[in-house]
Amino acid sequence: MLVACTLFWGLSFTSMKALELTQQQLLPGADSWFFTALCVTARFAIAALLLLPFAWNQIRTLRRREVEQALLMAAFGGSGLLFQMDGLAYTSASTSAFLTQGYCVFIPIWVACSNRSAPSPRTVLSILLVMTGGGILAGIRGNEFKLGRGELETLVASFCFSGQILSLEHPRFTANRPLGLTVLMLFATSLLALPLTLLTAPSASACWQAYSVPATGAFLAILVLFCTLTAFLLMNIWQRQISATEAGVIYTMEPVFASLMALFLPAVFSQWAGIHYLNETLTSRLLLGGGLITAANLVVHLPGRKSPTLKTPA
């Protein structure tokens, strides 16, 4: 289920890129921050509204710890998105994709410190495979790498995403119900991005103009139904079945799926929207980097001792 979750998140990269290219044609003078913040505000709010009827009974009887967990996840996840978006303005997309995977390192370190025990050799091996594969996939070269504002903000974003993943494992929230929790989390994330949308909007009508053609509605529908509603439901329901360390490794499949989809979806989206968005090409870098990340997922699920979970008392 979590691999399926990363598949949908991988779909979001090409969908958001195509959406922004289409919106730039509609509002050529608008800042990219506006398009990104507007998309986050709209997709999370619509996803929450679609799920609301199915979760109404849980919403009416929300417990204090469910509200606490939902707001915690929204704060970590929403902050991570904002730091990641701003960091992209100061570094390359490939470097950002590589550093975002830092949560597969942050999570086992946090768990080890909390439990006062060292990560297992299997966990260490899977982390090394992920970081090596991610670096190859992103085309990172040591002599070209620098740690500037963009890189630091991306690391902060990855740390925030670690908090979001860990908050699903915390024993304090074991009894929480996923549907009501997800609705509240989605609404809270949308509200977090709303001020940035209002601050960067070039005019009062820009929000409507950005979605004034059918193609933008189609891209938004993909992001809402698959990349937000379905993906976060899968995450909130199924991640609690495994440790946060294992989940962090599984989530690194996201850039692999994103790279595979970039081989053919841009041409399809270009035909839909009348934009210039070229397919990427299959390279040895994709095969080797993706293969190492896939191997890391196999290693972490080999029979034997499982990765430790948090032992913090509820």
- Regions with pLDDT < 50 over 5+ consecutive residues? none
Largest sheet: none
Helix content: over 70%
Mean pLDDT: 85
> What is the chain-wise order of helices and strands?
HHHHHHHHHHHHHHH
What radius of gyration results from the CA coordinates? Answer: 19 Å
**Domain module tally:** 1
Q: Tell the overall outline.
A: globular
Oligomer: single chain
The chain-level structural class is mainly alpha
Question: Span from first to last CA?
Answer: 26 Å
The count of strands amounts to 0
% residues in beta strands: under 5%
How many helix segments? 15
Structure description:
- The protein is mainly α and 314 residues long.
- The protein has one domain (2-201, 210-300).
- It is built from 15 helices and no strands.
- It has helices at 2-26, 32-51, 56-60, 64-88, 93-100, 103-115, 121-138, 149-167, 178-200, 206-209, 214-238, 244-250, 254-261, 265-273, 284-300.
- Helix 6 (103-115) crosses helix 8 (149-167) and helix 7 runs antiparallel to helix 15 (284-300).
Question: How is the secondary structure organized here?
Answer:
Elements: H1 2-26, H2 32-51, H3 56-60, H4 64-88, H5 93-100, H6 103-115, H7 121-138, H8 149-167, H9 178-200, H10 206-209, H11 214-238, H12 244-250, H13 254-261, H14 265-273, H15 284-300
Helix pairs in contact: 1-2, 1-11, 1-13, 1-14, 2-9, 2-11, 4-8, 4-9, 5-7, 5-8, 6-8, 6-12, 7-15, 9-11, 13-15
